[in-house]
Amino acid sequence: MSQFSFQLEATDPETGARAGTWTTPHGPVQTPAFMPVGTLGTVKGLLPDQLRDAGAQMVLANTYHLALRPGSEVVRELGGLHRFMDWDGPILTDSGGFQVFSLAKLRKMDDEKAVFRSHIDGSLLELSPERAVQIQEDLGADCIMCLDECPPANDVPEKIRAAVDRTTLWAKRCRDAQKRDDQALFGINQGGIDEGMRTRSAEALVPLDFPGYAVGGLSVGEAPADMYRTLDFTVHQLPEHKPRYLMGVGRPVDILEAVCRGIDLFDCVMPTRNGRNAMAFTSSGPVRLRNAVHIRDESPLDPECDCIACTRYSRGYLRHLFAAKEMLGGILVSLHNIRFYQKLVHDLRIAVKSGTVAQFRANQLARWNAQP
Amino acid sequence: MSQFSFQLEATDPETGARAGTWTTPHGPVQTPAFMPVGTLGTVKGLLPDQLRDAGAQMVLANTYHLALRPGSEVVRELGGLHRFMDWDGPILTDSGGFQVFSLAKLRKMDDEKAVFRSHIDGSLLELSPERAVQIQEDLGADCIMCLDECPPANDVPEKIRAAVDRTTLWAKRCRDAQKRDDQALFGINQGGIDEGMRTRSAEALVPLDFPGYAVGGLSVGEAPADMYRTLDFTVHQLPEHKPRYLMGVGRPVDILEAVCRGIDLFDCVMPTRNGRNAMAFTSSGPVRLRNAVHIRDESPLDPECDCIACTRYSRGYLRHLFAAKEMLGGILVSLHNIRFYQKLVHDLRIAVKSGTVAQFRANQLARWNAQP
Fold first, then answer.
1. In the CATH scheme, what is the homologous superfamily, with its name and number, of domain B5-268?
2. How many CB pairs under 8 A join A and B?
3. Sign of the Cα pseudo-torsion (B332, B334, B339, B340, in order)
4. How far apart are CA B170 and CA B127, in angstroms?
């Protein structure tokens, strides 16, 4: 595990926002950091050079999807995920559990394992903590995740408690199953939006001494205010000198608010998924490029952005691409949205280091016309 | 028209293959040249920098498609096609006639004009020679085309003759309608695969002194041998010191054979359309990347190619992208195929200049395992 280290460089005393550098076998990640999502070993429509140019330092890939197609052994035989997808920077894989619960047809789950049917071909598959680690060792990401149980936001308290306890049990088994020493295995805090449950989870996981901790089970249907409140009472229970990762979050405002509660790492499909659907995040709020108002609009998507979409094309052209169902529309706006997210976390990092977090947060919220 | 000039640099005495430089208001084009097709103002899935990196010097856009979406006036208002699609090199637009006959529902055609229904929304539209020029002046390409009538390959002789004569009539009207002096308007030779008809067309068009000539009405269903034979008796009837453009052609072997008959310019959707469908042109022949044989294949798509797809990825990864319906598959193989076409015309140019055309042609045919 000596190939990993997390150096905290600054912490905002008022909010707890942090700036740091997380060193991995594939290079450093300056935090707070946002990971574009490359579900199947490709951030949809974008080349690695384009991601790097947009400021991305680390990407995420999905274990469940890659285990189904092309299979983790195939990825291993083709040189592992870095070689496979030509990304030589750090990579994180999730455990696959989230998709087993959300996407596959779950057949049976007990403390031993989950049994489910593939959403591709209906074949019967299993995922246990040991198998989740084995698959992730085949894939070879820098950062891998313990298998967890992620209940719906509105689940009853006894189900939340059971998920917390099973997640703890599985975390131990994942830790014991790990063979490679060049992958950081993160524990995942669960517990819904209940302070007692989150505390129960943290108190069980922190002694296991994982090199980093994720907060799971948020952004699964609860109100943003509930998510922020949950972070308020959860984050400070995680080790200060280890990276903290908020899984699957979120909107720009969510990232802003979560950084201001001490989170270091993020991933979300929103910049690319929304980009493919003609929705752009801009410095003055969301822009929907399918709207007819843009047909003859010569102005750039976001005059404050330095990406290709904003510096080389008009809103009229981007609108045309979506109206004509041209691939380049989704490509350009995905690229822009990733650039927007990267700039946001970069600016937050600068704000933490310069002691201007509160001011930055207020300015951003005012500009986006959003309230947390 | 002083912004255009065509300098013949070498002609192969045996085959008539030529190497030249065609100067346009947006820069020179070294011939023989292949134009990637950007139907709606975008070569599907690719950015202009990627096209340039692949060696493309000039691109084609389709008048019919752009006239329907977003409309030629919109393109003009957004700064013209170069600004619109961020391609500052030379652009060629077709007249729109080919799609009116092939894609739209043609309602009526006489010597005056074609009346047709849009394939998008069924609206009733007209295309006359004057309108075709006006639309192309709005779009603002460097090279524009006369409206022609392109009959099917198997049409009866009287229909072919009528199309030749209407094409001549329309060529005169296009020439008279032209207002801009910074666009090269090409005449289009028609006449099916009949020597008499091709001669009739050439003898009528050449005196009109267009700055370049296209050969239309080929690659519309006739056998390759018929196309090559038609070029044999057509090309030498076109002016020697003007560029010659074979519209919509074709396979690599077609380009090789047509260059060896004195053609300078080409366009075809094949590299991009086939690329999106997982078919790659390689130095040893076509490769179908969906085939299961590639699942665990670590080798590059084409070891002789210097494109991103070939230098950074395995066949196994490319196969995975298509199996998983990921956009990046079509992007990478389109890029590769365009690079393959650009290298082909570049190598032909070198062969003409070095007097090795016959040898190059024999080598290529042997490698592709193809016979003309």
1. Queuine tRNA-ribosyltransferase-like (3.20.20.105)
2. 113
3. positive
4. 11
- At A35, give phi and psi (nearest 5°): -100, 115
Cα distances (Å, whole numbers) of residue B357 to A59, B6, B235, B262, B370: 48, 21, 18, 12, 17
Residue type, B218: L
Locate tokens 């005449």: which residue? Answer: B187
Residue A285 CB coordination number (10 Å): 12
Tokens of A261: 């509660």
Which residues share a beta bridge with A125?
Answer: A116
Q: How many CB atoms lie within 10 A of CB A25?
A: 14
- Which parts of chain B are beta strand (E)? 5-11, 18-24, 27-31, 33-36, 59-61, 91-93, 105-109, 114-117, 124-127, 143-145, 184-189, 213-215, 244-246, 265-268, 279-280, 287-288
Cα–Cα distances (Å) from B14 to A263, B256, B258, in that order, read 72, 14, 14
Residue with the two structure tokens 């209906």: A122
> What does the alpha-carbon distance between residue B297 and residue B314 come to, in Å, rounded to a whole number?
7
- pLDDT tens, position by position, B207-231: 999 999 999 999 998 999 999 999 9
Question: Tens digits of per-residue pLDDT, B63-88?
Answer: 999 999 999 999 999 999 999 999 99
Whether A267 sits among the annotated catalytic residues: the reply is yes
Minimum-distance CB partner of A295 among B70, B298, B320: B70
Q: What is the torsion angle, in degrees rounded to the nearest 10, for the CA atoms of residue B347, residue B352, residue B353 and residue B358?
A: 100
Compute the distance between CA of residue B44 and CA of residue A317 in angstroms, rounded to an integer.
14
Contacts 24+ apart (CB under 8 A), A169-174: A169/A111, A170/A129, A170/A146, A171/A129, A171/A146, A171/A204, A171/A205, A171/A208, A171/A210, A172/A208, A173/A128, A173/A129, A173/A130, A174/A95, A174/A129, A174/A130, A174/A132, A174/A133, A174/A146, A174/A147
Pick from B364, B348, B343: nearest CA to B54: B343
Which pairing describes strands B114-117 and B124-127: parallel, antiparallel, or unpaired?
antiparallel
Residue-range domain boundaries for chain B: 5-268
pLDDT digits (tens, 9 = 90+) for A41-68: 999 999 999 999 999 999 999 999 999 9
Tokens of B275: 């690329």
Q: Is the pLDDT of residue A372 over 60?
A: no
Strand order in the sheet with A59-61: A33-35, A265-267, A244-246, A213-215, A184-189, A143-145, A91-93, A59-61
The contacts of residue A2 (CB under 8 Å, 6+ apart) are none
Q: Which residue of A has its CA nearest to B47?
A: A328
Nearest C-alpha of chain B: how many angstroms from A312? 6
CB spacing of A40 vs B317 below 8 angstroms: no
Q: Taking phi first (over 0 means left), then psi (-120 to 50 degrees means alpha), and beta for anything else, what does residue A323 get?
A: alpha
Token digits of residue A191: 């517990």
Neighbouring residues of A53: CB distance < 8 A, sequence distance ≥ 6: none
ipTM of the complex model: 0.97
User: Is the omega angle on the peptide bond into residue A70 within 30 degrees of 0, that is, cis?
Assistant: yes
Query: CA-CA distance, A297 to A302, in Å (whole number)?
Result: 12
The strands making up B114-117's β-sheet, listed across from edge to edge, are B105-109, B114-117, B124-127
Q: What is the pLDDT of residue B370?
A: 59
Beta pairing, strands B184-189 & B5-11: unpaired
Give the three-state DSSP class for B178.
coil
Structure confidence at residue A101 (pLDDT): 84
DSSP string across A59-72: EEE-HHHHHHTT-H
Determine whether the interchain pair B40/A327 forms a contact, defined as Cβ–Cβ distance below 8 Å: no
CA atoms of A87 and B130, how far apart (whole Å): 53
B86–A313 C-beta distance less than 8 A: yes
Residues contacting residue A348 through CB under 8 Å, at least 6 positions apart: A17, A32, A255, A256, A259, A357, A360
Task: Looking at the structure, give the CATH architecture of the domain made up of residues A19-268.
Answer: Alpha-Beta Barrel (3.20)
**B39, B42, B321: which to substitute to probe chain A, counting the most A Cβ within 10 Å?**
B42
Map residue B167 onto helix, strand or coil. Answer: helix
